[in-house]
């Protein structure tokens, strides 16, 4: 399954019936910590509770839902990013899904670089430049 770069948040919820419509509730923390604003219109994708992998086998179920949003990147992952700002230490700052920050040492504002994620924390990641421009 391919996930869009435009993904703002991901959560599990129930669909409830209310008179002549069905309602999907967005958890409060998704509004408070994410890019979701009350009153705005969003596209919603529904994924079956019985997910399966590409080979048809059942996907493993998570032990429990995380209490806070998980970082949108993993160590070893490569990303194409644009440097939007410079941090206090002089490192480049890029933002990806939900405003998550990737710190890129040696990058300048306006540069578009390919980085490999070398460290992941709950609120930021560090990426090493592997290609200067793309």
Tell me what the structure shows.
About 5% of the residues lie in helices and about 30% in strands. The two termini are about 25 Å apart. The chain contains one helix and eight strands. The longest helix is centred in the first third of the chain and has 6 residues, at about 30-35. With about 130 residues, it is mainly beta. The strands form two sheets. The chain has a six-stranded mixed sheet with strand order 3-7-8-6-5-4, with no helix packed on it.
Note the topology.
Layout: E1 15-18, E2 21-24, H1 28-33, E3 78-82, E4 85-86, E5 92-95, E6 101-104, E7 112-120, E8 124-131
Parallel strand pairs: 6-8
Antiparallel strand pairs: 1-2, 3-7, 4-5, 5-6, 7-8
Helices and strands: which structural class? mainly beta
Oligomerization state of this entry? single chain
The percentage helix is under 10%
Shape category: elongated
Estimated share of beta-strand residues = 25-35%
| Cross-sheet strand order for the largest sheet | 3-7-8-6-5-4
* Structural Rg: 18 Å
Give the integer mean of the pLDDT values.
82
Termini separation (Å)?
26 Å
**H and E order:** EEHEEEEEE
Number of helices: 1
Number of strands: 8
Unreliable spans: none
The major β-sheet equals: 6 strands, mixed
Give the key terms.
single chain, 134 residues, mainly beta, 6-stranded mixed β-sheet
Short description:
The protein is mainly β. The chain has 1 helix and 8 strands.
């Amino acid at each position: 399954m391919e996930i869009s770069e435009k993904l703002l948040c991901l959560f599990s919820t129930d669909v409830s019936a209310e008179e002549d419509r069905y309602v999907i509730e967005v958890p409060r923390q998704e509004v408070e910590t994410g890019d979701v604003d009350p009153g705005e219109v969003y596209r919603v994708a529904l994924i079956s509770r019985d997910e399966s992998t590409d080979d048809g086998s059942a996907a493993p179920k998570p032990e429990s839902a995380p209490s806070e949003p998980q970082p949108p990147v993993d160590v070893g992952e490569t990303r194409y990013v644009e440097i939007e700002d410079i941090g206090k230490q002089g490192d480049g700052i890029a933002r990806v899904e939900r405003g998550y920050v990737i710190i890129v040492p040696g990058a300048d504002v306006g540069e578009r670089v390919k980085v490999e994620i070398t460290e992941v924390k709950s609120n930021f990641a560090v990426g090493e430049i592997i290609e200067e421009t793309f």
